[in-house]
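Predict the structure of Inner membrane protein.
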Amino acid sequence: MSEPQHSATPASGKLLRGLWIGLAALCFALGLAGVLLPLLPTTPFMLLAAALASKGSPRFAHWIRAHPVAGPAISHWDRERAIAGRAKCLAVAALLLSAGVVLLTLESLTLALCIVAGLAGVGAWLVTRPGPSQPPDH
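Done. Here is the predicted structure for Inner membrane protein.
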């Protein structure tokens, strides 16, 4: 005997849609803050915002992809899994700055070195991503 299938009620569908949109808006806001704050990344939050918005509001997702700050990076990533050279340089600079702050402020050398190793891994992954082969279509 099989379990009964539960379908989402209209109210729970609206709640879930609202949750996706809210999380997308939060990620988008964090991504915009990352434009101004050197230790906060922009691109990962914008990519996450576009993905979350796609689940809750295709119109919001389209707006994010067309945004002058977020759009080009998202287009490069969606099309080619590529990261522009300027974005890589800024990200690596932020990682180096973060590593310096960690090394200077944490009392535990072991913990600091573990964090720096993680940051180095992220940096290595970033610099090995290809650059975009063509400009975005925005």
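The two ends are 53 Å apart (CA to CA).
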